[in-house]
Design brief:
The protein has 636 residues and is α/β, with parallel strands linked by helices. Helices cover 41% and strands 15% of the residues. It has 21 helices and 21 strands. The strands form five sheets. It has a nine-stranded parallel β-sheet, sandwiched between helices. A five-stranded mixed β-sheet has the order 4-8-5-6-7, with helices on both faces. Strand 1 (41-46) and strand 2 (49-54) form a beta hairpin.
C-alpha cells in the first residue's frame, strides 16, 4: 500500500502495534497483510479526519469516520436482516438420523411457531461487503453480538488501512475462536465471489448460523454489490445438503471394507507427460453428437467415462480407458448392472472414491480407489496421501478432478452439459435415466434455473447441476496451467474454453506410455502403515470427549442468545478433532440439529424458548450417545 505522508504519529504507532501483535499471535493474518494487491491505496489522517484514496480517488469525501458513522446509524434504522425458513431435515426411519428427526418433531409439535423469526442483537452471521478504513467493523462489533463476522473485499490493499484505524488486539479478543470468529474473503469477480463465499461458509464456518444473518454494504463497489446480490439469490444453498450421520457412517464402513479388499490407491506422485490429452465424458444430452469424434480419436486421448455415461458408450461400442464412479449407495451398483454387459465392464479399470459401495468392485477386474476430500472414510488414511477436492456432487466432478490431479494439462469435456435445453431430453441416448420401467427413469427434469449456454442461448438446470458447475469452476480456478475445452452444448462453465467438435485438432502423444505411468500412481503401500484399530479407538475417545463438552454447557443455557453461543461453541470446538474421523462423522448431524434448534427458538414465544431449547439439546445429547454406541460396533 502506498501511503501519503499525511499521517499522525498516533496513526503510525497504531499500525506498528497492530503488526507486532499480529505477527506474534496470528502469523497467517500477518502474512496475508503482507501480500501485494493490485489497487493503489493511500491513507490520510490530518486534522483529526481520515480519508482513503483508491487509485487516487477519495472514498469517504474527506471524513472517513463521520461518513461511516452516518452509514451505520442509517443501517440501524433499517438493517438488512434475514432469516432462513424453519424446517427439520427428513431422513429414512430406519436410521439413527430418522429417529432423531422424529424426536425433534415431537418436542416442537406442542409449540406454536410464528412464521417469521424474531431477531435480536445476537446475530448468527454478519456478512460485511467492503472494509476500507474499517470503522464500521468496530461499530458493528460494539452494537451486535456477532458469532461469525465475514469481511468481503476485492483486494488485499483494501484491508490494510485497518492497521491504522482499528485495535486488532481488542478485536481479536472478541473474535477469539471460542464462540465468535472473524475472517476475510476476497474476489474480483462477482459470480465467483458469491459462489466462493457460499463454499467458504460450508467449509470453514457454521452454516446453521445463517438462520439469522445480516448483509452490511459498506463500500458501493460494482463487484461487491453484484456479489452480494448473487449471494442473496443463492443463500439457501449452504443450509441444504449438510449430510447426515448415517451417510458418513456408510463412508466409514464402506471405506473399511474397500481397505479389506486391498484396492490399489491413487498416490499422484507421477504426473502424466505434458503433451497427454484427456477426454472427460459425462452423460449430458450433447454427448450424442460427440460420439463419432470420440470413437475416431480413441487413440489420441485417455478417456474417462463418468457415471451413467457408460451406458451410452457401451451401446456405441466405445471402450473408455477408465470408468469413474463416486456414489456410496447401492444404486451405483444397480445402475451399472443395467447399463452395460458384465463382460464389457470387467475389461475396464474402475476408479472410484473410498466410500464406494463395496460390491461395485465385483463388477470390474481392475478396481482402484482414490481418496475423497472432506470425507470421513478418507480420514483413516495417512495425511500425505492426496485427497481429491471438488470431486462431487456429480461423477463428472470426480472424473475432471482425477484428470487434473493426474497432471493432464489439455482436457476436453464431452456431455458435461450441466443442464438441458429440453427438460425431457436430460441425458444422452442409452442412459439408464431414459430407460422406462427402471428405478432410474425420469420423464422430465426440473427447470429451476436458466443459465447462459456454452454456445449461446439459454439452458435449463437444477440445483444439483448448478452446484456441480460451481465446483468445476472452483477446481479450475486453482488449476494453474490446465487448458480445459468444453464441447458440450449445455451451460457455460467459467475457466473452460467453448469449442466445437469440428474445431478440435488433436496432436499425437504416447498414450500407452501415459497409461503405464497412470498405473504406477496406484499403490497398496498404505496397507503397511494404516492403523485402523488405533483410528477407531481414537474416534470413540474423541466422541466421548465432545459429548462431555456439550453436556457441561447445559447449565449455561438460560436465554435465546445462550443457545446461539452454544451452537457457535459446538461448531468451533469440533475443529479440535479436524484430523480425526470424528469431524466428518459428527459435523453433519450437528449442522442439522443446530439449524432446527435456532430456527425453532427464534419463532417461539420468548418465555418458552429456554424450556424448549433445553429439551432439544437434551434430545441431541441422547442422539449423540446412540451414535457413539453405533461407532463402537465398527470392526477394523
Amino acid at each position: 500500500m502506498n501511503t501519503i505522508q499525511l499521517l499522525t504519529s498516533e496513526a503510525e504507532n497504531t499500525r506498528r502495534k497492530n503488526l507486532e501483535y499480529l505477527q506474534k499471535v496470528s502469523p497467517q493474518f500477518y502474512q496475508f497483510l503482507n501480500l501485494k494487491g493490485e489497487l493503489n491505496c493511500s491513507v490520510v489522517h490530518q486534522a483529526n479526519r481520515w480519508e482513503l484514496f483508491v487509485n487516487r480517488k477519495p472514498l469517504y469525501g474527506g471524513d472517513g469516520y463521520g461518513t461511516t458513522k452516518k452509514q451505520f446509524d442509517e443501517y440501524l434504522q433499517k438493517p438488512n436482516s434475514f432469516s432462513t425458513p424453519f424446517y427439520i431435515h427428513e431422513f429414512s426411519q430406519d436410521t439413527i438420523d430418522g429417529w432423531f428427526s422424529q424426536k425433534l418433531k415431537q418436542i416442537i409439535a406442542s409449540e406454536r411457531l410464528s412464521e417469521e423469526c424474531h431477531t435480536e442483537k445476537s446475530v448468527g452471521t454478519m456478512l460485511v461487503f467492503g472494509v476500507g478504513l474499517g470503522f464500521h467493523i468496530d461499530l458493528l462489533t460494539q452494537h451486535y453480538d456477532i458469532k461469525q463476522l465475514i469481511l468481503v473485499e476485492t483486494d488485499v490493499e483494501l484491508i490494510k488501512p485497518t492497521l491504522y484505524t482499528l485495535d486488532w488486539e481488542k478485536l481479536l479478543s472478541v473474535y477469539n475462536g471460542k464462540d465468535r470468529i472473524i475472517s476475510f474473503y476476497l474476489h474480483k469477480d462477482p459470480d465467483l465471489l458469491a459462489a466462493g463465499l457460499l463454499d467458504h461458509l460450508m467449509s470453514y464456518y457454521n452454516p446453521s448460523l445463517l438462520t439469522h444473518f445480516h448483509v452490511y454494504l459498506h463500500r458501493y463497489d460494482p463487484v461487491l454489490l453484484e456479489g452480494a446480490k448473487k449471494f442473496w439469490a443463492s443463500h439457501k444453498s449452504p443450509i441444504l445438503g449438510f449430510g447426515f450421520f448415517q451417510d458418513e457412517l456408510w463412508s466409514l464402513e464402506y471405506t473399511l471394507e474397500n481397505i479389506k479388499r486391498e484396492l490399489p490407491l491413487f498416490y499422484g506422485t507421477k504426473p502424466v507427460p505434458s503433451d497427454a490429452v484427456a477426454f472427460v465424458v459425462g452423460a449430458g444430452p450433447s454427448l450424442e453428437y460427440a460420439l463419432d469424434f470420440i470413437k475416431q480419436n480413441q487413440h489420441k486421448a485417455v478417456i474417462f467415462s463418468c457415471g451413467s455415461a457408460i451406458g451410452t458408450l457401451y451401446q456405441e461400442g466405445i471402450k473408455p480407458d477408465f470408468h469413474v464412479e463416486i456414489e456410496r449407495t447401492k444404486q451405483t451398483y444397480d445402475a451399472l448392472v443395467i447399463s452395460a454387459d458384465p463382460d464389457y465392464l470387467r475389461t475396464i479399470p474402475a476408479l472410484y472414491n473410498n466410500p464406494m459401495y463395496p460390491q461395485v468392485a465385483e463388477l470390474f477386474d481392475d478396481p482402484r480407489m482414490w481418496l475423497k476430500g472432506n470425507d470421513t472414510g478418507a480420514s483413516l488414511f495417512p495425511p500425505h496421501i492426496p485427497r481429491l477436492n471438488y470431486s462431487n456432487p456429480t461423477v463428472v466432478n470426480g472424473g475432471l478432478s482425477l484428470a487434473v490431479n493426474m497432471g493432464f494439462r489439455e482436457i476436453y469435456l464431452f456431455g458435461t452439459d450441466m443442464g438441458y435445453k429440453d427438460p425431457k431430453k436430460h441425458h444422452a441416448r442409452g442412459n439408464v435415466a431414459l430407460k422406462e420401467g427402471t428405478e432410474f427413469y425420469k420423464e422430465k427434469e426440473s427447470q429451476e434455473y436458466e443459465l447462459e449456454g456454452n454456445f449461446g442461448g439459454t439452458v435449463y438446470s437444477n440445483w444439483l447441476l448448478v452446484w456441480a458447475r460451481s465446483m468445476i469452476q472452483d477446481l479450475l480456478k486453482s488449476a494453474k496451467g490446465v487448458r480445459v475445452y468444453n464441447t458440450s452444448d449445455g451451460a457455460k462453465i467459467e475457466f473452460t474454453k467453448p469449442i466445437r467438435i469440428d474445431q478440435i485438432n488433436l496432436r499425437g502423444f504416447k498414450k500407452s506410455e501415459t497409461l503405464k505411468l497412470i498405473d504406477r500412481n496406484f499403490s497398496k503401500d498404505y496397507l503397511q502403515v494404516i492403523d485402523l484399530p488405533g483410528k477407531l479407538q481414537k474416534l470413540v475417545r474423541d466422541a466421548q470427549d465432545y459429548h462431555s463438552f456439550l453436556r457441561n454447557r447445559l447449565g449455561e443455557l438460560e436465554k435465546t442468545h445462550d443457545f446461539l453461543s452454544f451452537v457457535s461453541q459446538a461448531g468451533l470446538y469440533q475443529w479440535k478433532y479436524a484430523n480425526s474421523p470424528f469431524f466428518g462423522l459428527f459435523r453433519p448431524p450437528l449442522m442439522n440439529f443446530s439449524y432446527a434448534l435456532l430456527s425453532a427458538l427464534c419463532r417461539t414465544q420468548k418465555s418458552q424458548r429456554a424450556s424448549l431449547g433445553l429439551r432439544l439439546v437434551e434430545a441431541y445429547l441422547e442422539f449423540f450417545q446412540k451414535c457413539i454406541d453405533r461407532v463402537k460396533m465398527l470392526e477394523p
